[in-house]
Amino acid sequence: MARRKPPAPNVKKFGAPLYASAWIDDRVALVAGGGGKKSSGIPNRVMQASFDSVELTEPLASVHTDETAPQVLCAHPYGAELLVAFSGDVAVYVVTANDASTQLAETEESDAPPPEASAPYRISPRDLDDASGTATRVTLATCDVKCAAFSPDGASLAVGLESGEVRLFAWPTLEPSEVRLDGSHADAVNGVAFSPDGTQLLSTSSETVKDGRGPIVWNVSTGAKVATLVDEGREKAAGKARFGRQYRFCGFTPCGAFALTGLNDGGEGHVCKWACDTWKPLGTARRVTREPLSAMAFDPTGRTVACGNSEGHVLIVDVKTLAIKKTIRGAHMIFVTTMAYSPDGSTVLSGSADASACCTVVSRKRTGAGGTNGGAWNDVAEKAYALLVAAVLAWLFFTVGRLAARLQTAAIGPDANGGAGGDVERIDMLAGLKYGDIKRLAADVRRRREAGGDSPGGDASAPAVNDESHKPTPDDTERLFADEDPTPYECVDGENIRCEDVLTEPEAWEMRVKKKGAGGDDDGQTHTKPKSREDARAATFEAVPSEAMETGDGRVPSLGAPGWGDRTRDEL
């Protein structure tokens, strides 16, 4: 049985299905979930953990929520309070930093401190119920609260309900706002988001897109509908085939120029981008996954958007191009239920009903020492490092190339004119012949030339008329034509010895000898270029006399070497 791969350090199990997530600061994350009633045996709680860009810790502290599991977490913009929704009820918790100097520690005289005392933050109910001693809960609706969002100034709270309504409440009293939004969606609201200036509210619903339905933009001051987002091009292309088209989740870019929504169309997840001045789509929706979207989160810096699908994958999408920057396949075993960005936008926290939480690093933190922004310096340093690496690689390639050239020159030696070609014969492999045999013949020819006084530095372009050193000896010829499929070839005697395969129309077993002065300036004359290949061959080579090409029944053609015309093929 195959051994299961251990989980990555950025993934941890929290012992309960997770439904909500949030961040207190850039390092401390919150996840919430549970099993509902105590009879399930799974506790309901809000858990605190930290992430250092590499490892996600085990729960450092937790707050139990009795018999109801938290469904929504929403951190206040100022970070001092946390809203937790349980069905239609909500409770408010106060987040207090634990000073390292006052944190309790285990001593010889005392037991280990409780986790809440050693955790970075202490989470406690803002208001206590006198009868039960637990957090006071406020009922906002008779149906489930599906999503919530604070206004940028933190003075208002918007909640999306299972009934399709979007309601506004004052903070911190949680009193219903005097502004009532005019209308509602046809199905449960799954996303609400305030514009950066706080004047408008965008909401999405699980309703099927038809008859002009879709994401709605509300005026927060009057409650009137500003616009319904409709992609007319997609509507016309889809025609009547609108089954399964639902917008899910929404958010704004920090500049307020664009809004983003998710879209499940035909079982595939898309990301849509809208212009906030016209509320028209910017380009076409971009498909990012072939599975439906089950969760989304929007980068507070406006660079990316995170998507989780029904297969447990996590995808990071670039806001400008809607292109996928990173995909973490199998981040969770089953569908993603919740996602949240850290305040600096460097990390995405995702949770699943399989009780796992995963922290995905989107980008390196750009905060320098002392909390100052060192992003520009980091960019320059990264570019300089890349240029340095490129320069080193280029130098290595150049050095290796020069070394190879020097090794080749040292092996061949300089030629008669001082070049790098050398007087050593250039040998090309002939089809059907052994390279070692050809090389041995060339070396033998060179030895004969040197024995005849033709030194490498001499005039090799004018060989003696009767010099037959280029011709193979009987023993050499026997080795050359011992192969099953001998191939015709040429031996050309010039400044260098070159044996090449004859590829165009030579007669079988024909050997041709280069004419003196043909094809070059050996005779001191200027030659005009032949008009055709046949003319070139006729001007370059002279035919071997027919007496040298004796043939007979069962006998191989003669090469003009003594004794070879009398041997049969079987004897060879």
TrEMBL record:
A Pfam family assignment: WD40
Stretches for region Disordered: 104-128, 447-572
Official protein name in the record: Uncharacterized protein
Biased composition (Basic and acidic residues): 467-482
UniProt topology in membrane: Single-pass membrane protein
Annotated GO CC locations: endoplasmic reticulum membrane
Compartments where found: Endoplasmic reticulum membrane
GO molecular function: guanyl-nucleotide exchange factor activity
Organism of origin: Micromonas commoda (strain RCC299 / NOUM17 / CCMP2709) (Picoplanktonic green alga)
One of the GO biological process terms: protein transport
InterPro entries per record: Quinoprotein_ADH-like_sf (IPR011047), Sec12-like (IPR045260), WD40/YVTN_repeat-like_dom_sf (IPR015943), WD40_rpt (IPR001680)
The entry's keywords: Endoplasmic reticulum, ER-Golgi transport, Membrane, Protein transport, Repeat, Transmembrane, Transmembrane helix, Transport, WD repeat
